[in-house]
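thoughts on both lines:
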Amino acid sequence: MGRKPDLPGAVEWAWAWQDRAACARFGTRLFFHPAGERGESFEERERAAKRVCAACPVLGPCREYALAAREPYGVWGGLSEDERVRLLRRRNLARRAA
């Protein structure tokens, strides 16, 4: 997926995990669906992206970034767009209940 643009000194550490990401070897097409993609091709692409994530040494930081930033598209940290939305809803409900 690549890396965020170079950031000024003090905040560069926040993105350093991306240098170790397994997805950096792949193009973004694996992690972000093209317009109109549906059905089996969508599901297979998403499964392939999640397989890359499953072996990634920075899966945790990637997932937490995506949740904190409310990334609206793509597979991040092994979670799809819908899975991230559901997880955030569960976290919000748990926080309210506590």
Notes: The mean pLDDT is 89. Residues 9-97 form one domain. The CA atoms of residues 14 and 54 lie 22 Å apart.
